[in-house]
Amino acid sequence: MQRKTTPLMRHRQIQGILQMKGLYLSHSSVYHHLKSLDKVEPYERRPSPLKEPRYSVWRRNIMWGCDWTKLLISHIRWYLIIVIDFFSRYIVAFGIYPSINASHVKHVYVAGLKTQGIYKSPSLPDLRTDRGSPNTSWVTKEFFALMGADLSYARVRRPTDNALTERFFGTVKQEEIHIVGSYPDEISARYEIGRYIDHYNTHRPHQSLWNFTPHRVHEVNNNTLILQELNDLKHRSRLARKLYWEGRQG
Question: pTM of the full predicted structure?
Answer without folding.
Answer: 0.79
